[in-house]
Amino acid sequence: MTHLLDWLDIDQETWVRCIQEAQFCADYRDARADRFLGKALGLVFFNDSLRTRVSMELAASELGAKPVVITPGSGTWGFAWDDGPMTGGEAEHIREAVGVLSRYCHGLGVRLFAEGKDRQQDMDDVRLKTFAAASDVPVLNLESAARHPCQALADAAVLDRQFDGHTKGKKFVLHWTWHPKALPMAVPNSTLLMASRLGMDVVVARPDGFELDEGVMDAARRQAAAHGGSVSETNDADTAADGAHIVYAKAWGGFERYTDPAAEESRRHAHKDWRVTTDRMDRTDNGLFMHCLPVRRGVVVDDAVLDEGPSLHLDQAEYRLHAQKAILSMLWESGSRSPSSEDVTDPAQP
Amino acid sequence: MTHLLDWLDIDQETWVRCIQEAQFCADYRDARADRFLGKALGLVFFNDSLRTRVSMELAASELGAKPVVITPGSGTWGFAWDDGPMTGGEAEHIREAVGVLSRYCHGLGVRLFAEGKDRQQDMDDVRLKTFAAASDVPVLNLESAARHPCQALADAAVLDRQFDGHTKGKKFVLHWTWHPKALPMAVPNSTLLMASRLGMDVVVARPDGFELDEGVMDAARRQAAAHGGSVSETNDADTAADGAHIVYAKAWGGFERYTDPAAEESRRHAHKDWRVTTDRMDRTDNGLFMHCLPVRRGVVVDDAVLDEGPSLHLDQAEYRLHAQKAILSMLWESGSRSPSSEDVTDPAQP
Amino acid sequence: MTHLLDWLDIDQETWVRCIQEAQFCADYRDARADRFLGKALGLVFFNDSLRTRVSMELAASELGAKPVVITPGSGTWGFAWDDGPMTGGEAEHIREAVGVLSRYCHGLGVRLFAEGKDRQQDMDDVRLKTFAAASDVPVLNLESAARHPCQALADAAVLDRQFDGHTKGKKFVLHWTWHPKALPMAVPNSTLLMASRLGMDVVVARPDGFELDEGVMDAARRQAAAHGGSVSETNDADTAADGAHIVYAKAWGGFERYTDPAAEESRRHAHKDWRVTTDRMDRTDNGLFMHCLPVRRGVVVDDAVLDEGPSLHLDQAEYRLHAQKAILSMLWESGSRSPSSEDVTDPAQP
Q1: What's residue A1's pLDDT?
Q2: Which residues pair with B66 in a beta bridge?
């Protein structure tokens, strides 16, 4: 059984095949109809979602599978994660919850954002791994504390198509922006790993104090080396976009949030000028804007960049649907089916 | 592309065909099964719903389409509507939200009640039009500030059937009733326009201070003139129902709510006797009771009117399902399909 | 029309056939696919659910029917139950809500826990019966104040299979456990009635003050007599499990909760040692643990009993899906279909 918690676990051939399959599904939306007829997909959302839930429901349905959405604490019990006697507010342990769902469903998607309490727990995706360990069926990460693989595949398929397969050597700026909240790092982590795997020249542009996790940076550098690209960093917002082919905006909080949240906040608020403006886009090499959404207009990016473009943000969102069909196909493999009732004795028939 | 925001935008031939299609779907519930296989319908509910959501989910499903329900602020982010930097609580702008959904879905339904802050904004359905403008796919009004076209078509189909096509000249009383809250005007507006389009002799019975919008009254008078009916008003609850064929009860708040809510409230509470009683029904010409539901028993109408009848309120609710199938067919047109994968090269096949 | 509110209303032949059908559906999950194509199932949840909602959505879907979930007060109006003028917070009466849903749906499931205010109202399932009386279509009890028939059938199918049809004479201990809350009695009632109907030797082990309803005990004794089993009671936690084949743990509150909640609470908290421990399981005759879930680890049962077994708790949960397919088949009967549109004149065709 294969999970998809992180693309780093998945070999290059499968990664490339998933990009191609996503593009095929984009070209022919009714392709693969009923490929997984009779399968059930449980979708567990510990956090809010618009694109992910809607596109997962449709991805499953369009493949013939039945999606069922579970929102812990809303219409169902809250789930306990800790060991020891359950005398608190939660009525059900994650072990039973996942155990039961994996009896009903042939796959489970789960969204489980960073708790923001323990850096190492978050960066190691400890809760996601606990969830997956309790499951007897494939688990798909719908954005965890540290990764967002569905977004990464969608973005990769968009970029590959945009550059007609020639992503290698293109300048990709992962551009930190200011945001009123200390957002988690799943998207920047996965974006960095995705762009480096495409062999792009990736620049992580962020103020001092907003570095990404060193383990993720190392993995990105290894991938860049393997795929002919590079990874570098800058703390200069004004020149970061110079000559870029892609400016991928994203806000995230600094690691100081785990140790001194007030310091992180005041450091962050000192960088309100880190916004992707039309002026900054003018310094690119006919660069395209990208963002995973939701995006705060006028905070993260100028309205005109979204409205007048060139921007790929709606294509990225659309490709979530196609990418997730590709991922479901990878997890379930074509042709695998439940035991069939054909040719058996039926007690309801004489 | 056609939206259905208001029936006033739709020509007479289409209106009549929709009534017939709704009646056909009522007679044969499995008609049109799979007509729109592979289509996705996004249903965005900014406000509560029972009939609308359930009947829309079923209408879509029974036509082969996949419905997906979105409840802004519950399981997904709240949406910002205003221009200017998004520094408030909402993480996503309606422009991106609708833009994304119209990439996933082939149609969008939206429920968006009156805000009650600005009379002209509400009567002009400004937010509904903002939503529709952001969509690349047909938008269906599931009750806005000023209109409820799904209810109007359902009611028209019920009335047409009830009078065997002879609605012209029948007396239709749109009967204001007391209610503890200042309810919005979408239903009375749409009901008035619907009955006048059927050529009925429409009487709007309401206390002084609870007049409907003059623009809606004018539109209704024009329709009555074109279809052989009439529109009049009365402020006498005791004689309003005399000789009526239909008593359509509905509570709504007065326009004073926009300028002096306390005055509106005390004016409204002076009319607690505006209830559809069995005595008032006895003064009709074997009249039938109608209500769009939900209805407050003993407040808007006597229990006996609902329980012993004759009343069409459950038929009206049922016809919502049939009417909405007719509307989806109008919006999507039979036979339009997504690009097909037949006869193309499939990367997953050797 | 048949409802399923309580198995006591259903004859023995049907009960046995449902057990067999549940087991058949367990063996062949794709059996019965599309048996009820075109049907709609409304699922009304007044209370939280995990297993029930997910398994009902899948049971319906896998039979070809469309499930629609309604959560009163969340996305829809709250429902009023009482007679008299509706001047409170609820906008819709249960009579209209159910009346409307039974126009849309071919069956309605409803979860409606005990209110805990009036013992007789709860034990008589008064609100469930009010709901069912307002419906024109079959109503399925998804756990009411007094019964949980879906759980009972699932458990019966698991037990029948476990003992290869030889449940008669096996020792079945319904084992009360401590719990921080005074839980309702639907599951212990239905479990007792289920095990006695299988002819098992049922022991209700509970502290004094936690007796089950005498009417339920009487019904269980009558069933035991008819099916070759027995029903007895004990208040000794330490010897209750001796020689047992099944230890079915369940917490419930005492009837004192209706008259003196503080006394019930302090009486309950005096029995924190009523937990199914590994030591107690060691005194059984290779006994199996059962629980309907959700279960509080370390409170109701030792972790090791769940994790190392032998335990049937995940099988019980899984069989909910299979049992509910059997129940839907019983309620809808194979072959019944909506009026068909075949061979009729279609207004949309020339």
Answers
A1: 74
A2: B40
Whole-number Å distance between alpha carbons of C187 and C292: 8
Give CA–CA dist B172/B190, Å, rounded: 14
On whether residue B340 sits in a domain, the answer given is: no
Strand partners for C2: none
pLDDT per position as a tens digit, A156-182:
999 999 999 999 999 999 999 999 999
B-contacting chains (≥3 CB pairs under 8 Å): A, C
The interface predicted TM-score (ipTM) is 0.94
C168 three-state secondary structure: coil
Sheet with C288-290, side-by-side order of all strands: C230-234, C201-205, C171-176, C246-250, C288-290
pLDDT for C139-151, tens place per residue? 999 999 999 999 9
pLDDT tens digits, B193-241: 999 999 999 999 999 999 999 999 999 999 999 999 999 999 999 999 9
The crossing angle, in degrees rounded to 10, of helices B94-104 and A51-62 is: 10
Q: Decide: residue B222, CB within 10 A, 0-12 exposed, 13-18 middle, 19+ buried.
A: middle
- Which residues of chain C are within 8 Å of residue A346 when distances are taken between CB atoms? 24, 31
Q: How far apart are CA B306 and CA B283, in angstroms?
A: 17
For B152, list phi and psi in degrees, rounded to 5. Answer: -60, -45
Same domain, B172 and B236: yes
The string of pLDDT tens digits covering residues C60-86 is: 999 999 999 999 999 998 899 999 999
pLDDT of residue B77: 86
Do residues C48 and A78 touch, judged by C-beta distance below 8 A?
no
| Owner of token pair 């212990």 | C188
CATH of the domain at A53: 3.40.50.1370
The packing angle between helices A94-104 and A126-133, to 10°, is 50
Q: Does A235 touch chain B (CB under 8 A)?
A: no
| Arithmetic mean of pLDDT over chain B | 95
B182 and B278 in a common domain = yes
Contact C328/C21 with Cβ under 8 angstroms? Answer: no
Question: B170 with B270, same domain?
Answer: yes
pLDDT value at A111 more than 70: yes
- Residues A249, A129, single domain; the answer is no
A112 alpha-carbon distance from chain centroid? 11
Q: Does residue B294 sit at the C interface (CB-CB below 8 Å)?
A: yes
Q: Which domain covers residue B237, as residue numbers?
A: 153-315
pLDDT digits (tens, 9 = 90+) for C147-186: 999 999 999 999 999 999 999 999 999 999 999 999 999 9
Single-letter residue type at A127: R
Count residue pairs from B and C with Cβ separation < 8 A.
111
Q: Where are the beta strands (DSSP E) in chain C?
A: 40-45, 66-70, 79-80, 92-93, 107-111, 139-141, 171-176, 201-205, 230-234, 246-250, 288-290
Is C273 in the same domain as C185? yes
Question: Could you give the number of structural domains in chain A?
Answer: 2
User: Are B161 and B261 members of one domain?
Assistant: yes
Q: Is C183 on the interface with A (CB under 8 A)?
A: no
pTM, two decimals, is: 0.95
CB-CB under 8 Å, A347 with C24:
yes
Q: Are residues C207 and C233 in the same domain?
A: yes
**Would an 8 Å CB–CB cutoff place A82 in contact with chain C?**
no
In a domain, A254, yes or no: yes
Same-domain check for residues A288 and A165 = yes
Using CA atoms, how far residue C239 sits from A144, A342, C125, C242, C249, in Å, is: 47, 48, 34, 5, 15
Nearest by CB to residue C314, choosing from A42, A100, A344, is: A100
